[in-house]
Design a protein that fits this description.
Number of domains: 1
Number of helices: 7
Shape: globular
Family: Belongs to the peroxisomal membrane protein PXMP2/4 family.
Pfam families: Mpv17_PMP22 (PF04117)
Keywords: Membrane, Transmembrane, Transmembrane helix
Membrane topology: Multi-pass membrane protein
Subcellular location: Membrane
Largest sheet: none
Low-confidence stretches: 187-197
Length: 197
């Protein structure tokens, strides 16, 4: 067996143990890594030649993943959905459709408002938060449905509860790219085009 395979297996086992022993911290760090990677991809793929990399932007995205997406959404919200919505038949069609509907009508708008508000606050421009929320929440949520509804059909239908945060954060790399661009000044046409691409 190759050394890479052994290291990969050991790393996976360590991650699974960490999820069991310290679920909130592990999910928070997973989300932080996903948000950071999404922003790195966004900046490297879209910045004009010669423009400097914005480390503070990546730090803000990482902080949002660490303090909001990981613990509040990834741990408590998904945990609540699993315990509340048809817990005896969690993979049934009714459970999956209900979880997607509740997630996308409640958490998607709240998470988007929290994201744009947090970004402006961390940029030390809290007075601009309300305008950004008004302009970008609905287009971002509507665009997100194209990505998150099918992604959550897989998430709630097939992914084990313990691995949900990891799965969501792999998908969230693409979503973070979209959010990062929107927060950096992308208009709603750009957001919709990025989700559709």
């Amino acid at each position: 067996m190759s050394r890479v395979v052994i290291l990969s297996r050991n790393g996976w086992n360590a991650y699974c143990r960490a999820l069991e022993q310290r679920p909130i911290i592990t999910k928070s760090l997973t989300a932080a890594a996903g948000f950071a990677l999404g922003d790195v991809v966004a900046q490297h793929s879209t910045k004009p030649h010669g423009e400097r990399y914005n480390y503070l932007r990546t730090a803000r995205m990482t902080a949002f993943g660490l303090f909001f997406a990981g613990p509040l959404q990834g741990h408590y919200w998904y945990g609540w959905l699993d315990k509340t919505i048809l817990p005896l038949r969690p993979k049934s069609l009714g459970a999956v459709v209900s979880k997607i509907g509740i997630d996308q009508t409640i958490m998607a708008p709240l998470g988007t408002v929290a994201f744009f508000s947090a970004m402006k606050t961390m940029e030390r421009k809290p007075r601009e938060s309300l305008q950004m929320v008004k302009e970008k929440t609905w287009p971002t949520v509507a665009a997100g449905w194209q990505l998150w509804i099918p992604a959550h059909a897989i998430n709630f239908g097939f992914v084990p509860s313990s691995m949900r945060v990891l799965y969501v954060n792999v998908v969230a790399i693409a979503w973070t790219y979209i959010l990062s661009q929107a927060a950096a000044g992308g208009n709603e046409d750009r957001v919709e085009a990025q989700v559709s691409a």
